[in-house]
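Regression test case RT-17, inverse folding.

Input:
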């Protein structure tokens, strides 16, 4: 402190009088160094969003603190396009996604690292260091040897890119903005500047450039963001709410070493009957209640409040803002100490001393001869060789732990993203007939926190890959652990039980009644069979049993009973499907699909999908009947349509093909007896056109894009 230094210099040069003059000069220098009290320092506010305006202060972070930071560099959003098959012969739909590249300044002093990151109040990066959204991220800790960021240098040129040495900042490269309305979200960072708690005095000592020593301020703080338009503003907002003040030899905050003095003026006033120099304000001049506002780490660094009440009192309440991260018990203890201190400050003293006490300065502790307790000097003047001191009583209680609670805490969800699961298969459109084959791509995660992945497709056996956008909503994917019986597709299977296991226990199924099933509810692909289930019961963690099965849906009755343990299960829901239209289809054609997850799941997952075009083929005819007449075989059947899965009005379902045509094949004991064509769902075959009596008849519908699987009629 300048007061202490100049007092010593004045005493060495001019003796006691020089010391007095030096002390007075020193107080003038102190006032200049620490600036008037009207200036702005840190204050307790809700966590602010990033700013990017000039002259924004750079905070110096201590301990662990949640801060918004300031955007110091950004370029225009990057647009990407992808096409999605629309089906029904309609043009594909082009969708757009956006990503951002920017840098955020965090601290004006070096840090150790960044833990969690919030985006619009939700976790972007979890406590485990996992990302919830795809992004590139680089952190610069503020070392003096750091080099300019390569992304910023590539955009601005190396000569125009500062390294920001001594300051900590973060760079986001390619932050995907789909979760944030295609805009840069409001980010806040949990910054670890120092290992463990930091002593309040140590913070003040560094912020003041060692002009203020730590002294008695040993209060541990979890975190603090130092800023203000003067040194005094930066430290007073921390010291005063915590019950500390600046003395000539450093920070003080409780009774300790004190200078003994005798109140000569008060003694003289008592001897001649004059007015005393001791005043005690009315009880209601001190607050009956004190609340401390602070940042609570248990509440994800949001504002917390602790309260203390003065016993047997009534009156006003006072709020003190302490812009630091504390534990609830610390804040409660500070509130109780503040109640006591404000009550004691009702009592003031003014004492007059001779010039030999000129070295006593504001902030010093004194004791009055013959009286208990200690006093803090709030002001000191030297006039006509008389030193006049104004005093406030110092409380006797030191900080001690108190029982306190942070209240109800609702932290942001922090489920780890985890690896990706992917399933792909050719699937008929969920509505209508469709004119082009489509592959349905579904993805989920091994852990509940999985959200999405980027998709790549290859139609040349992995020689080249095409970006096809991102996955849809997380799907319900599992594996078959219990097989159902082989039953006809024309009956509701009430006897079989199918068992499915999922990757995690948050995957859930629900039952459906007959009306909901008729409208298409609970459609699932199990192996190669599409089925619906009416009952779903969880029997163990991650394991479900399915009952009341509607089998062979949408023309997949040939796959009934072909499943094996370990086959895939996929719940077919429109919002969980990402459609893709292959350019080539046919026998032996395969599509490869890769799902590349967010950071931490860089390897992703892959699947290979046969693209045969079967989804555009009509379903096989049913209800085949044969009438063996003399000289001919009369055959009739009922056609089905890939645009007519529901019998709407009692009339024939739509054909959904360019023309109606059927292929009929008769088989004898020794093989084929002949092939026949028909343009209607019936045919008369003369007996003289076949060599022997047939034992099996197959009927296929010939569609615009392919031929159906056979409808089979065995003959005895």
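Golden output:
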């Amino acid at each position: 402190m300048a007061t202490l230094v100049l007092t010593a210099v004045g005493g060495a040069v001019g003796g006691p009088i020089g010391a007095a003059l030096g002390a007075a000069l020193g107080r003038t220098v102190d006032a200049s160094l620490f600036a008037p009290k009207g200036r702005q320092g840190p204050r307790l506010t809700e966590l602010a969003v990033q700013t990017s305006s000039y002259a924004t202060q750079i905070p110096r972070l201590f301990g662990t603190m949640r801060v918004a930071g300031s955007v110091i560099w950004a370029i225009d959003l990057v647009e990407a396009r992808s096409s999605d098959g629309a089906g029904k012969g309609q043009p594909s739909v082009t969708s757009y996604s956006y990503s951002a590249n920017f840098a955020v300044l965090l601290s004006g002093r070096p840090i150790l690292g960044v833990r969690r990151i919030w985006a619009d109040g939700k976790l972007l990066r979890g406590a485990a260091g996992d990302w919830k959204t795809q992004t590139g991220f680089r952190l610069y800790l503020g070392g003096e040897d750091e080099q300019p960021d390569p992304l910023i240098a590539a955009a601005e040129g190396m000569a125009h890119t500062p390294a920001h040495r001594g300051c900590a900042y973060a760079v986001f490269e390619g932050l995907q903005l789909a979760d944030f309305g295609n805009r840069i979200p409001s980010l806040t960072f949990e910054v670890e500047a120092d290992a463990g708690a930091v002593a309040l005095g140590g913070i003040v000592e560094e912020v003041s450039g060692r002009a203020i020593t730590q002294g008695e301020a040993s209060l541990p703080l979890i975190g603090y963001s130092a800023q203000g338009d003067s040194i005094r503003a930066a430290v007073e907002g921390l010291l005063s709410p915590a019950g500390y003040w600046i003395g000539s030899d450093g920070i003080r905050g409780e009774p300790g070493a004190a200078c003994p003095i005798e109140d000569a003026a008060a003694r003289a006033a008592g001897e001649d009957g004059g007015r005393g120099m001791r005043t005690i304000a009315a009880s209601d001049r001190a607050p009956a209640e004190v609340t401390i506002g602070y940042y609570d780490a248990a509440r994800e660094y949001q504002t917390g409040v602790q309260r203390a009440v003065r016993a047997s009192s009534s009156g006003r309440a006072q709020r003190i803002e302490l812009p630091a991260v504390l534990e609830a018990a610390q804040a409660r203890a500070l509130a109780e100490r503040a109640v006591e201190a404000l009550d004691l400050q009702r009592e003031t003293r003014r004492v007059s001393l001779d010039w030999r006490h000129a070295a006593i300065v504001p902030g010093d502790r004194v004791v009055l001869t013959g009286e208990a307790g200690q006093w803090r000097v709030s002001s000191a003047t030297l006039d006509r060789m008389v030193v006049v001191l104004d005093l406030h009583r110092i409380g006797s209680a030191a900080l001690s732990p108190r029982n306190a609670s942070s209240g109800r805490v609702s932290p942001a969800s922090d489920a780890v993203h985890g690896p990706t699961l992917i399933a792909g298969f050719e699937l008929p459109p969920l509505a209508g007939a469709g004119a082009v084959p489509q592959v349905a791509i579904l993805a989920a995660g091994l852990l509940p926190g999985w959200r999405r992945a980027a998709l790549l497709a290859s139609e040349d056996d992995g020689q080249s890959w095409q970006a096809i956008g991102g996955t849809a909503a997380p799907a319900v994917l599992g594996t078959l652990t219990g097989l159902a019986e082989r039953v006809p597709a024309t009956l509701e299977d009430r006897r079989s039980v199918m068992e499915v296991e999922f990757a995690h226990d948050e995957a859930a199924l629900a039952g459906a009644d007959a009306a909901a099933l008729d409208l298409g509810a609970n459609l699932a692909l199990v192996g190669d069979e599409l089925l619906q289930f009416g009952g779903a019961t969880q029997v163990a963690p991650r394991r479900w049993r399915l009952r009341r099965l509607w089998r062979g849906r949408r023309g997949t009755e040939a796959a009934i009973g072909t499943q094996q343990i370990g086959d895939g299960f996929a719940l077919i829901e429109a919002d969980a499907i990402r459609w893709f239209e292959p350019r080539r289809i046919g026998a032996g054609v395969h599509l490869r699909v890769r799902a590349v997850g967010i950071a931490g799941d860089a390897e992703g997952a892959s699947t290979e999908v046969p693209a045969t075009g079967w989804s555009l083929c009509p379903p096989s005819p049913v209800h085949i009947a044969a009438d063996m007449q003399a000289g001919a075989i009369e055959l009739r059947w009922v056609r089905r349509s890939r645009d007519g899965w529901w019998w709407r009005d009692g009339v024939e379902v739509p054909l959904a093909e360019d023309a109606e045509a059927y292929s009929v094949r008769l088989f004898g004991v020794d093989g084929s007896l002949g092939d026949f064509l028909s343009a209607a769902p019936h045919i008369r075959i003369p007996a003289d056109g076949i060599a022997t009596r047939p034992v099996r008849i197959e009927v296929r519908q010939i569609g615009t894009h392919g031929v159906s699987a056979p409808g089979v009629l065995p003959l005895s």
